[in-house]
Write a structure and sequence with these properties.
Order of helices and strands: HHHHHHHHEE
CATH topology of the largest domain: DNA polymerase, domain 1
Number of helices: 8
Structural class: mainly alpha
CATH class of the largest domain: Mainly Alpha
Number of domains: 2
Largest sheet: 2 strands, antiparallel
Strand content: under 5%
Number of strands: 2
């Protein structure tokens, strides 16, 4: 007996036990719907589900069989064998942790059903004991660093010189180059995401009493931020 939208396809039959793959598929389908209601994008949802499936494949276990030691071995392999950076490891751990939070929530029947079917329950396997630490604001490697002030000034000066060169050459593109350089400075100066920069308007700028020397452009309010639309 299988409902139209699933739900009972994992139940045991007289000739076999519960279907573990079907039960996991039901959980992932429910998690996918839950993320859609939270306005996450298809790309983000697919990435998270694939991370859970990859974890299952790597450990050879289903989520109700996972242990913290499985997470230790899996992420240790990603670091020491595959050479993934800390920022990526944290993102992967976040995906697995979010799945565990959903699967173990009392708001959903998965853990209760899991106990009845398999005699075990799902739990959090990413804890403060094995979670990748975020100890500094910047996570880039030693080969990457922020510009020093004199280097930043040289960079902006070069961008301005490029605009002047294009204009003086009497070819098309001077206005576009000036626009791009202005956008670059605003993006860097205010620390904007690309979508925040794209949706800026003149009304987002206003005077800043603490920095009057900037005139009408001393304060920037980001009205169209990351969380206002679909979450990435």
């Amino acid at each position: 007996m299988v409902e139209k939208r699933g739900g009972l396809s994992f139940l045991p039959l007289p000739d076999r036990g519960p279907n573990k793959d079907a039960f996991l598929a039901e959980i992932l389908t429910g998690w996918k719907r839950q993320q859609y209601t939270k306005n996450f994008t298809e790309k983000t949802i697919t990435r998270r589900i694939n991370r859970v499936l990859d974890f299952c494949d790597a450990t050879g276990k289903f989520p109700w069989e996972w242990m913290p030691t499985d997470a230790d071995e899996y992420f240790s392999h990603l670091v020491n064998v595959r050479g993934l950076v800390q920022e990526t490891i944290r993102a992967y751990q976040s995906d697995v942790s979010l799945f565990c939070s959903y699967a173990t929530s009392d708001s959903y029947p998965w853990n209760e059903t899991c106990g009845r079917l398999f005699g075990s329950s799902m739990s959090h396997i990413i804890t403060d004991l094995n979670k990748a630490r975020h100890t500094q604001a910047a996570t880039m490697g030693p080969t990457k660093r922020a510009f020093e002030l004199d280097e930043l000034q040289q960079f902006f000066d070069f961008a301005d010189d490029e605009v002047a060169r294009i204009i003086s050459s009497h070819v098309k593109g001077g206005l576009a180059a000036w626009r791009d350089v202005t956008a670059l400075k605003v993006c860097y100066g205010w620390g904007l995401r690309h979508d925040e920069l794209r949706k800026l308007d003149m009304v987002d700028f206003s005077p800043n009493v603490k920095a009057p020397y900037f005139g009408d452009y001393g304060l920037l309010r980001v009205r169209n931020g990351k969380a206002n639309k679909r979450c990435s």
